[in-house]
Design a protein that fits this description.
Length: 242
């Protein structure tokens, strides 16, 4: 959590490169109030931090979901003041969870542009191991998951062994799959099956499927909130024990 208290150190050019946008876009967002102002340092140079990066990622995700700039503004205005980069990342994850699964093709140049940095072959291997991308048949062409790209790139800079990151990913996948299985079983047995036994109208069945889709973001939000609280409790207990 130390990163949350780091002083902003990125120039506007560095922020643009890390976020995969142009400096012009950052200045435009700033004039619209979508980004907080930078911290002014020596020589009147503005510096940006992780909260700016996370907010840019959230704006990008909202626009990816089809929101107009005005709708993005309304969404951001409703957020509580003083959200950390971590909090903004959770909001982005919840927004991304509403969208259907998608994958995109990208060249090496496009991949690095979206990553906001140059990627060595070792970086590509690590991103592939994390499930962020797979190599396509054509040279320097990749099939990537846009929702995971920014997370994967951030993990490249975390001073944790690659094997540890993969082990954590395995734990998350196993337990989230188990939770999804049990929640699906509960919905099927307690809601879907009794409903089908009472109703035979195809329109009513379609309505129930619509309800299932509507519940998905709510369930995801509940899972994220519960996991976040549990993780804080476990970390607190672990370090207090130490």
């Amino acid at each position: 959590m130390a990163a949350e208290t780091e002083e902003p150190t990125l120039t506007v050019d560095e922020l643009a490169a890390r976020a995969g946008v142009t400096v012009r876009t950052i200045r435009f967002y700033s004039t619209r109030g979508l980004l907080p102002p930078p911290v002014i340092g020596p020589r009147r140079v503005g510096h940006y931090g992780r909260d700016h990066l996370s907010r840019l990622a959230l704006i990008e995700e909202l626009q990816h979901q089809g929101m107009t700039l005005a709708a993005v503004e309304r969404y951001l205005e409703q957020l509580p003041a003083g959200l950390s980069a971590h909090d903004l990342a959770i909001h982005r994850a919840l927004v991304a969870s509403w969208a259907p699964d998608s994958a995109e093709d990208a060249t090496r140049a496009e991949l690095e542009r979206r990553a906001g940095r140059a990627l060595a072959e070792e970086d590509i291997d690590r991103l592939a191991a994390m499930g962020v991308l797979v190599r396509a048949d054509a040279p320097d062409t990749y099939r990537l998951d846009p929702g995971l790209l920014r997370l994967g790139v951030e993990l490249l800079e975390v001073p944790i062994a690659h094997e540890t990151i993969l082990a954590a990913r395995t734990v998350l996948l196993e337990h989230t799959r188990e939770a999804a299985h049990e929640l699906t079983r509960l919905f099927r047995d307690e809601v879907w099956t009794p409903y089908r036994e009472r109703e035979s109208d195809p329109g009513q069945v379609a309505a129930m499927r619509s309800l299932s889709a509507h519940l998905q973001p709510l369930v995801v939000q509940a899972l994220v909130t519960a996991f976040q609280r549990s993780l804080k409790e476990e970390l607190r207990a672990a370090f207090q024990a130490e």
